[in-house]
Amino acid sequence: MLFRQLEYLVALSRERHFAHAAQACHVSQPALSEALRKLEEELDVPLVRRGRKYEGLTPEGERIVVWARRILADRDALKDEVDVLRSGLSGRIRTGSVPTASGAVAQLTGPFCAAHPLVTVEVMADMQSVDILRQLQNFELDAAVTYLREDLPEHFHSVPLYEERYVLLITAADSLARRTTATWAQAAQLPLCMLTRAMQGRRVLDELFARAGAQPSPRLETDSVAALFAHVRTGPWASIVPQAWLHVFGVPPGMRAVPLVEPAAAVPVGLVIAAREPESVMARALTDLARSTDVATALDRIPSDPGR
């Protein structure tokens, strides 16, 4: 059995298409198909349901691809460990984040790159929390910044980073722009643009509106926090954004950021990794940095509002 064969099986499971899997592995489709046939012969079980086109993995294939991901992740961790012993941390770390936390990721990636100049950081932003946990478990991500739920499964480890607070983003002409705070009930009466309901960040906001006894009726929904800023800037919209994003865009001219109260919510956000032994060298280095970095202090203050 060769690592290459396991890589082909994992790629086919991910791409769900023989030609696309071959392209991802930089080989011809016949070479990939032949390597998988040889793997089936060696294991003496069918792995792929074949027809006129790819029809999925067999039940045996679904089980073996889990082992394949684990074996390949352990191989990569071994290489990283040897590289550290030889010349310091090097290679690539794959990270992800939910959209509302992606503005805070730079609080970690900047110091991490400074401490480990031979490492390349790959950041997958705008991910749903359920996809983050799945990709961590499948060894497709090394670490991610997401909401710290009370029911986080025990096969994940987390490092708290900060508490997400929310501001009402409105135009300077709005009557609420002159207030020092606004309530969730007041925000619900505005023409809101919000994240889509499929996203954890939206579900958090819906829970907060419910606690305030309010029911918003958003006129526009998006999966991008940056798009929320763009729409409010056009004039007729209002939105609710994480305070941390003000450290990315600031408070744009002609707009105001008003803290939301009643309730004054604070939702925990942190770094999450898969619990595994041996621990990934990359994940360990990032979690060590996260524990020593005061992300909360950097994000708790609201940047100065040029209009006030």
Layout of helices and strands, plus pairs?
Elements: H1 3-15, H2 18-25, H3 29-43, E1 48-50, E2 54-57, H4 59-87, E3 91-97, H5 106-115, E4 119-124, H6 129-137, E5 143-147, E6 156-164, E7 166-171, E8 182-183, H7 184-188, E9 192-195, H8 200-211, E10 220-222, H9 225-233, E11 238-242, H10 246-249, E12 255-261, E13 267-274, H11 281-292, H12 295-300
Parallel strand pairs: 3-4, 3-5, 8-12, 9-10, 9-11
Antiparallel strand pairs: 1-2, 5-13, 6-13, 7-11, 7-12
Describe, in plain words, how this protein is organized in 3D.
With 308 residues, the protein is an alpha/beta fold. The protein is 43% helix and 22% strand. The protein is built from twelve helices and 13 strands. It has helices at 3-15, 18-25, 29-43, 59-87, 106-115, 129-137, 184-188, 200-211, 225-233, 246-249, 281-292, 295-300, and strands spanning 48-50, 54-57, 91-97, 119-124, 143-147, 156-164, 166-171, 182-183, 192-195, 220-222, 238-242, 255-261, 267-274. It has a six-stranded mixed sheet. A five-stranded mixed sheet has the order 4-3-5-13-6, sandwiched between helices. Strand 1 and strand 2 (54-57) form a beta hairpin. Helix 1 crosses helix 3 and helix 1 packs across helix 4 (59-87). It is elongated, with a radius of gyration of 23 Å. The termini are far apart. The model has no long low-confidence stretch (mean pLDDT 89).
